[in-house]
Amino acid sequence: MAAKVLPSLIFLFLTEVVLLHAKVYPPSDLVRISSRSTSFTLQWTETKNTNYKIVILKDFVPPPKSPGKTDDVKSPFKATKSASGGDLQANTMYNIYLFAVNPNDSSDFTYVSLEGVATGPPPPTDVEISYVGSSSIDVIWDHATSGVIEQTTDYEVTYTSSDETITSKQTNTAAVNHLTISGLSPNSFYSINVVALTDTDNIFSDESPSVSTTTAPTQIGAPTCSDVTSNSISLEWEDSNESAVTYTLSWSPSSEDGSSTKTGITTTSTTVYGLNTNTQYSFTLAVLNNAGIGMPSNKAVFVTIPGSPGAPALSLSGEKTTQIQARWNTPNGGDAVTSYLVEWWPSSDVTDTTSATVSHVNGNTSHIYVIENLTPGKSYDVSVTARNTAGVGKPSPSSSLRTVPAQPSNVIMTQQETDMTTSLLVTWTKPQGEVDSYLVKVYRNNSLTLSTIKNMTSFIATGLEPGAAYSASVTGISDQVSSEESARSNEQRTNPPNPTDVKLQPTNENKTSHLNVAWSMPNYSYLVSSYEITLYSSSQNLTVQHQAEEMSSTTYLFQDLVPGENYVASVQALSPSSIQAPETRSDVLTSNSQRTVPKPPKPNVEATTSNTVSLSWTPPEGVYTSYNIFYAKSDEDMPSNPSLQVTSYLATSYVVNGLSSSSEYIFQMSSVSGTDSKSTESVKSDPVTTVTAEIIGQPQSVQITSTTSTTISVSWSQPTDYNVVISGYRVSCTSDDEQKIVNVASSARFATISGLTSNTVYCITIAGTSSQGDGAYSDCVKAITTLGKPKTITMTSETLSTADVSWSPPADGGKAANATRYIVTWSPPDNGGSVEVIPWPGSSTVFTKLRGLTANSGYYVSVASQNHVGNGDTSDFVYITTLPGAPYITSISSSSSYAYIYWTKPDGGDAIDDFLVEYWKDGYSSKYTYTKTASPGSTSYSCSISVSYYYQYTVRVSARNSAGSGLPSQNVSFTAGYSFFSEVAATENFERPSTKLDLNWKTLHQRGEFLVQYEGKPSTSKNFKVVKFTDKNTSLDVEPGNNYTISLTVLEGDSPEPEKIIYASTKPSEPVYSLECSVNAIELTWSHPEGFVENYLVQYISAQSIETEKLDKSMTSYTIDDVVADTDYVIMLYAIIYDINGIVERSTSTARSCTTLKNANETISRKKRSAESIQSGLSLDFGGNDAPAKSAAPDSIMIAGLLVGSLLLVLALLGSALLYKRKQGFLHHEDFPN
User: CB 3.0 to 4.6 Å from 53: which of 67, 106, 583, 715, for a disulfide?
Assistant: First the structure.
């Protein structure tokens, strides 16, 4: 047996020893920082005693077998060459292999790879400047050629001056190949290049070739005039160009072509001499500097001064209210006159002078100017003076003239309040200017009735005829100068006289629809064209209007009125009417109230019982407030007074009770309008005759069995007295507003009335029915329908464990009883509940607070109302989520550009939509945010954020859902990409791999002492040790099977913070186990090793297979029951844990061999043969000293043993490969079966 197994076990041991001493580890944290058109920038974490080499191949090329003769590289590294030595190509997919090589043995290496990494697109080409201004530059370029890997999505344009570099990003404009750069400085040098961007982070093209230019100077403002004479003009200006060298001034007479130029001006002012008198000139100015000449300024126009003229002659004429015309001749002598100054003032006040400038017209010998806007009725003095740009001439003598007074305006004739029938009031507005008095004229039909002179602005004309139309005019007078007569006022009528003794009376011909109105008028002279008689309906507010046609008649008959309606009449006299003089009206006189007689209804017999008759009728036309029912037996006289009164005008049926069975009755009805002493009653209707049925008594034991908001269920027993066959029952359900009838079969003694109104009182009566009609109805049993659904449920959540609920009482249905309590119920069942709420009396809104809810959880809430009737309807469900709690940040790691945040979700449910990550630089007000979508069932989350090297940051995380944002996590601070420590590594101690860790590091410089703190999980032990600054390593005593968080701190300052945190794991202790082999099973038993274990791993190897089983940490025994009889097996038992990244850490294991039995009858010694340990993989003994000696095997058996040994050697190599994979950190959870 030893010959069969020994070679494989020896090889397994030697492989384990070599792998345990290997010092080459694969690179870690390999990331692509950026991709450009022809290069990659890579970064990884280096370890000591390792050289690094990079091989780059196109993605379809197989992986390299070795790094070859490539050069050593350091992190970070910019790669520009492929494995073949050629430059990298744009828009191409590559695979990048980073080899870690033993510096002492180049054949000892390992690698990690980044596969499918694309280079950026090629850079834009033919970058040109298409326009240059003083503050802007237009840039154009040809599109970068996009490939199938990374499409160009944007362009980024960078422009640089001597003192600033600015990047302008064209977002979402891959189709646009131009940009206007604005906001530039004039006369400044700029260099420009363009980069093509993609929609993938940090993948972009190389920079295009740069183009450069200098901006032009700014346009200068137009010059201003500081002084002018008859032959010179002095100019000055302002200039904002700091680098101006000289100025060029150009000018020309405005009426001539061509120009003169003055160059080389070095100051901001100059004087131009030798100009013509009385001449207009145009000037422009431009700036010259080293970049060229700027845009010319806008034109400035100035005029030289002319000579002086002589004095003109003056004359006046004109008689208008606000205008005086002045005429004068051109004065003799002097150059051409440019204008005249006309001055005027009131004759009584020379200090109140007004002037106007009149332009001179060449060739005219005389001139006219109309002075406007003068005060009417006022005397003015006027003089004229000639002027030109050289000066002012001598004024002319003044002349005087008075303007005509203005017309009075707004002449209005209105009725006078104290007497509207024989007097009218005339008012007008005082005209502008001076007026001494007024002439007032009053006209009727254009004939002057009276005139008078008044010195105020109103006049009362008296003694006028009632109903006649009058108008008026007013003339203003100033110092015996009269204005024009004003426009005629409106025509205004006096009121006609009032009617008296208005009466409203019924007629004998038709009392149901006719009423007559009568009134009286005075006997003196007046004008009346018609009367307006208005009839008002008191109950329905209907109005009927009619105008009388015959003025001699003072009565009017209204026909086709509503029967039974109450009316009031009014009469008003109307004067004649015209467009100029609308009608006037007398006062309105009102009559007494009078009601028309209603019409009778038409009764019909609907059903009869032994003692009742059911009547129905069609309501009569018109207004009525109640009905009278008259009845008598056919052999008796009809009573004169009503037998019954139906007080509801809405009723259309009635059941007459207390009649005799099998008797003939005659019925008549009348309608009544009104409830007071002036009510009217219709005549009686035509009679109807019917016979009462044979007797059916009242149903017995009527009971309400149940009610809902829309139904009432009732039961009863049959009548005790009846003498006909009962064919069924009629159930009547009546409220104030409705009645429902349900017919049921004779065998049934119950019924449900549906379609009812909630919260309403109903009267239930029941009668038996037969072929002869209905029997006697039972006495009324009252029932109330329950409440409807509460309305308008609203919910809000403002805390983690509470929610506010509010609702309105049921709005539909009647008003039988208010809700006295509400039951609020919420789910899910595992955290649901209910609460009773008592509302405030009369409250339109009810509210309560749900407590004890779970944070970030969803709930369905409903509300049901209750009162003394019972439970009302339950409302529809409303869904709400509670606010999330605070997440917990578990760890943060950081590089120079990125930080990785790890956190756990808050306690409570899964009702979380996303997480808001907020972070900011310490000392800065700007905050940055990142949103992470939540995944149902997940408890741990992470994200990466962009950071700036060496800045201190603070970060926090909040959970959010439909209720809002929850509590934030704790604030955690970190420094981006900086640590006093570098190359910190924790490795297993070779001699004590499970109980010691070797810690090594480098520092930037030597200072103080270092504090090393480490804490294990699941162990809760916390340890620390102080190390001198001269030391660069130490050993830590640890427990097997733990994940340790190790921090290094420089002991300086009052409260030092950890500057470097790393994570390391210790192997579990090796479990000690024993084997028991049988025909088809192998039983393992073991005891728990020292330290912590998360799982056990059993591997059993035969010539046919390698099998692996993962076991629970609580187990101490396991039976392998799928083995083959008479087969050699190698067994290994490992204790395993998982490090912080989920990678398996496995203990060492002593391999043990076992051969299953051939059959159950094999000797006891064979079954009990001990599977002894192979110490260090060097020896194996299958028996004790008492084992029987074996003879030498035949040659065939030896050959078979060699074949089996070779196969076991191959299996041992596979096991060693798994062990190597574990040591290199490549063995994860998914490598083991669940």
Answer: 67
Q: Is the pLDDT of residue 334 over 80?
A: no
SS3 per-residue string spanning 24-67: CCCCEEEEEEEECCCCEEEEEECCCCCEEEEEEEECCCCCCCCC
Q: What is the per-residue pLDDT across 117-146, written as a single tens digit (0 to 9) for each?
A: 888 888 888 899 888 777 788 889 887 665
For residues 1089 and 1071, what is the distance between their CA atoms, to the nearest angstrom? Answer: 5
Q: Of 529, 507, 445, 439, which Cα lies nearest the Cα of 477?
A: 439
pLDDT bin (cut points 50, 70, 90) of residue 541 is low
Give the integer Cα–Cα distance in Å for 912 and 933.
9
Beta bridge partners of 1207: none
Q: Is 971 exposed, middle or buried (CB count within 10 Å of its CB: 0-12, 13-18, 19+)?
A: exposed
Q: Is the pLDDT of residue 419 over 50?
A: yes
Distance separating alpha carbons of residues 906 and 916, to the nearest angstrom: 13
- Backbone φ and ψ for 125, nearest 5 degrees, come out as -120, 170
pLDDT tens-place string over residues 969-1014: 999 888 876 556 667 788 887 777 778 888 887 765 555 677 888 8
Q: Are strands 964-968 and 761-770 parallel, antiparallel or unpaired?
A: unpaired
Q: Specify the pTM.
A: 0.33
DSSP string across 732-766: EEE-SS-EEEEEEETT--EEEE-SPPTT-EEEEEE
CA-based end-to-end distance of the chain: 34
For 589, which DSSP code?
E
Q: Are 669 and 629 in contact (CB under 8 A)?
A: yes
3-state helix, strand, coil in the chain (%, to 5): 5, 45, 50
> What does the pLDDT read at residue 733?
92
Q: Residue 41: CB partners within 8 Å, gap ≥ 6? A: 32, 33, 34, 35, 76, 77, 78, 79
pLDDT value at residue 331: 63
Asked if residue 609 lies in contact with residue 775, where contact means CB atoms within 8 angstroms, the answer is yes
Task: Compute the distance between CA of residue 1219 and CA of residue 1228 in angstroms, rounded to an integer.
Answer: 12
pLDDT, tens digit, 9 for 90 and up, residues 357-370? 877 777 676 778 88
Angstrom distance (rounded) from CA 54 to CA 66: 10
